[in-house]
Task: inverse folding
């Protein structure tokens, strides 16, 4: 079985089933499993008493089992089978897209099977079925597939408890659960939170009165609640009083108690009267339970049916699956009806206005109070809003508040944006303001998933002031630190961060200096100490534009530091302690020494020629590879072939260190291993394929799941053909699907003869981003004798550092002719014979570059 499990992710091969102790209910016959699935065919789950085999098939099982099949796009049907016999086969939801994951949950409670769709269990129920002869011993869950593999992730097996509030503490939100401590702002799900039970026979927010019996006893109720569970009679749509002279108070009380709490007790002789009242309001769940009870009572009669006068209990099936974990109601609500009440404003008792916008919704105080403790206090503690039918909110986004209201009514965030947007941040702040914990968690999760180097600063600036978003704040700080170079050079947004946040980020990068990210041991990265100094000085200056060390140094010599840095000058001392000066070149240290003399921070710098104990545990931890010429042995592809310096070179594709793929199928002349074989190939090309409605050709490099590269130079070699590429792009990706252009070539005439090498630098912010996948993609037909869409190249090499030893014009460096003989070529910009390139590799053990006694790189080793 193809089984890959990482962070709760697994893939099940064709006609196979995955089992495990981790997929076991805590209590036999009672449990819930939530998961995300991606499949080209049906998603099948089996529930049985014992673990099944790898090639398990439920049709051949002699033991009790439930099999639930979520139909794919082929049939879009839902099936439930008991012991191999189909008991349910209905049109239902399907996995409409095999390329994306969709969320589901399935629960079993004493034969009651509930199936829902969405991120959170016990919400968005789509189907329920009750087994009259329950298989109460099932406890193991098998994840199965048919003729296509199925991918599962975020699999959680949860116990079904009497109060499912505790389930949310056990559910895996990828580290983004908001803790329930006082330090994180408090979780509003406390003992004092209101539930629907609290409003049973309560005059608060009541808009309907039952006059019961001949004495007209008044019993309060709510049209909204009755309308959600059933239907309000036509004569009550506008009226307020409903007279029931022939119905006893006990019957009305049982009727309301069942609706508001999901269970009730009544004397057996009044069950018929309760059934009539339920039919009058069309409460289908109560009608069903009363009919079952009457049938059971009739079976117990002997010759003449007589009432025993005993109390009988009536309970809604859905009550056993309390939704209080996601929605503070103890019975199952029809959320579609609830959404209709919000959209139509029927039975509303409060108009919500937003300053500068006007009326945003006609809502219901009962729902707002159930979902939001602040709203509950507003409407019930004698404030002006308690008696008013209008409330006005200040400084609130109308779009965000509309989404918040919809979530309060249906428990689902109706927001389809897949990218980070200001609206999501507004919604996060609103959910915190009104104490809607579940919405806050959902917003935090989505923000975390959309987090990027360009959005982390605005997000961090907002959430750092929200005590209940500590987990999201920590995730942002980690992301910032891991991409420190990019976040501090692409824009000046980071200068808005507060002192404490900026210090924590500096502390995070203090002990790490990695260019290559080793994903099994993620580390914070910064390429050089000069970047840290620049970031500190720009932050203290609160500059609107990014400026380098040279500009800052010039300004320091002609300006008053107190005027330049303002109120933040007092923070310079503490922040500069995070810089590891001994790792800097002596030439740069001398410049720093000069400027620091102006700033009176000269004492921070190490004394030349002495050892500073403070820095003994911190060493340079990257390998410096020297780029000498095209086709040399100093690139990443070559180094991967040596297992990063551990043995003699072998083809890295054959050694399975990297993977090379082409746009066309592998063949004699489309050979992935030939592209990195380091030998001249007379014919080596990738043919075209159709992608997104257009033909394109490409070669792609996959560094493997444990490696990423910040590439800022790449080299290719033309094969022996005369078809030269002129329009192409060099791209990077993290997943092999979503690509970023690192360099785009338009009518590039660089390659003009067979066997020619050519290299190009990658500059700008994209050179600071790590990627796992790289590809060269042809965007237009080639030039030459036979113009075509074949991408002809027989060599590629990637390196990870900017050029040194000469002025850089950004043009290519070209060497060599057919057969690999060294020859002078056309140069764009000055070339001094050596270019220092830092290959973005994390090496174990790590090696530092050789330096001379003055602390500089020993260039004599490179002059060969």
Result:
């Amino acid at each position: 079985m193809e089984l890959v499990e990482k962070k709760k992710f697994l893939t099940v091969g064709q006609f196979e089933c995955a089992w495990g102790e981790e997929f076991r209910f805590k209590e036999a016959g009672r449990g819930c499993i939530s998961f995300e699935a991606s499949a080209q065919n049906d998603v099948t789950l089996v529930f049985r008493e014992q673990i099944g085999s790898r090639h398990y098939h439920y049709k051949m099982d002699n033991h009790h089992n439930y099999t639930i099949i979520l139909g794919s796009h082929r049939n879009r049907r839902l099936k439930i089978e008991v012991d191999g016999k189909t008991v349910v086969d209905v049109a239902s939801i399907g996995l409409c897209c095999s390329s994306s994951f969709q969320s589901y949950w399935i629960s079993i409670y004493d034969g009651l099977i509930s199936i829902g769709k969405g991120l959170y269990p016990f919400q968005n129920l789509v189907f329920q079925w009750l087994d009259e002869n329950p298989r109460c011993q099932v406890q193991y869950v098998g994840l199965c597939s048919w003729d296509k593999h199925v991918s599962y992730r975020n699999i959680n097996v949860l116990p079904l408890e009497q109060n499912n509030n505790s389930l949310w503490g056990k559910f895996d939100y990828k580290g983004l659960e908001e803790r329930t401590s006082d330090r994180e702002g408090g979780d509003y799900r406390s003992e004092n939170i209101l539930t629907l039970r609290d409003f049973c026979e309560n005059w608060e927010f009541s808009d309907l009165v039952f006059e019961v019996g001949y004495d007209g006893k008044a019993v309060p109720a709510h049209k909204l609640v009755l309308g959600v569970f059933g239907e309000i009679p036509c004569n009550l749509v506008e009226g307020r009083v409903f007279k029931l002279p022939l119905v006893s108070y006990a019957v009305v009380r049982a009727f309301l108690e069942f609706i508001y709490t999901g269970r009730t007790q009544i004397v057996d002789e009044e069950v018929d009267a309760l059934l009539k009242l339920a039919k009058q309001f069309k409460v289908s769940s109560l009608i069903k339970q009363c009919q079952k009870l009457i049938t059971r009572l009739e079976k117990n009669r002997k010759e003449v049916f007589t009432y025993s006068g005993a109390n009988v209990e009536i309970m809604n099936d859905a009550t056993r699956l309390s939704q209080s974990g996601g929605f503070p109601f103890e019975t199952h609500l029809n959320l579609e009806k609830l959404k209709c009440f919000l959209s139509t404003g029927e039975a509303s008792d409060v108009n919500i206005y937003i300053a500068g916008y006007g009326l945003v919704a006609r809502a219901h105080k009962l729902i707002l109070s159930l979902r939001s403790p602040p709203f509950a206090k507003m409407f019930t503690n004698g404030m002006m809003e308690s008696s008013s039918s209008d409330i006005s909110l200040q400084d609130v986004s109308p779009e965000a508040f509309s989404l918040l209201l919809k979530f309060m009514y249906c428990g689902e965030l109706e927001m389809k944006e897949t990218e980070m947007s200001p609206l999501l941040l507004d919604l996060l702040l609103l959910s915190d303001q009104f104490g809607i914990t579940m919405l806050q968690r959902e917003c935090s999760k989505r923000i975390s998933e959309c987090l990027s180097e360009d959005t982390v600063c605005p997000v961090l600036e907002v959430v750092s002031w929200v005590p209940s978003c500590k987990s999201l704040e920590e995730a942002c700080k980690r992301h910032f630190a891991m991409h420190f170079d990019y976040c501090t050079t692409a824009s000046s947004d980071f200068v808005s961060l507060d002192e404490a946040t900026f210090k924590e980020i500096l502390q995070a990068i203090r002990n790490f200096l990695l260019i290559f990210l080793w994903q099994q041991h993620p580390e914070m990265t910064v390429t050089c100490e000069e970047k840290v100094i620049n970031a500190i000085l720009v932050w203290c200056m609160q500059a609107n534009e990014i400026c380098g060390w040279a500009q800052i140094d010039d300004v320091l010599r002609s300006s008053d530091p107190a005027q330049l840095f303002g109120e933040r000058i007092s923070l310079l001392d503490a922040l500069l302690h995070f810089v590891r000066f001994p790792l800097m070149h002596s030439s740069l240290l001398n410049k720093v020494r000069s400027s620091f003399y102006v700033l009176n921070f000269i004492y921070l710098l190490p004394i030349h020629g002495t050892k500073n104990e403070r820095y003994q545990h911190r060493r340079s931890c990257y390998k410096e590879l020297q780029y000498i010429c095209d086709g040399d042995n100093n690139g990443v592809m070559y180094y991967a072939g040596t297992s990063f310096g551990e043995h003699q070179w072998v083809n890295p594709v054959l050694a399975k260190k990297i993977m090379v793929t082409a746009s066309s199928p592998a063949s004699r002349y489309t050979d992935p291993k030939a592209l990195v074989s380091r030998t001249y190939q007379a014919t080596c090309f990738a043919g075209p394929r159709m992608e997104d409605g257009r033909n394109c050709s490409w070669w792609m490099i996959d560094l493997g799941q444990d490696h990423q590269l910040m590439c800022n130079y790449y080299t290719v070699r033309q094969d022996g053909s005369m078809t030269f590429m002129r329009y192409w792009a060099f791209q990077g990706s993290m997943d092999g699907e979503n690509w970023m252009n690192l360099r785009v070539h338009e009518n590039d005439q660089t390659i003009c003869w067979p066997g020619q090498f050519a290299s190009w630098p990658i500059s700008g912010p994209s050179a600071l981003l790590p990627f796992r996948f790289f590809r060269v993609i042809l965007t237009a037909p080639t030039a030459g004798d036979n113009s075509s869409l074949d991408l002809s190249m027989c060599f590629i090499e990637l390196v990870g550092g900017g050029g040194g030893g000469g002025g850089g014009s950004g043009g290519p460096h070209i060497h060599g002719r057919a057969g690999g003989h060294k020859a002078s070529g056309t140069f764009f910009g000055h070339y001094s014979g050596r270019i220092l390139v830092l290959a973005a590799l994390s090496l174990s053990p790590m090696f530092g570059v050789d330096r001379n006694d003055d602390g500089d790189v020993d260039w004599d080793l490179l002059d060969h």
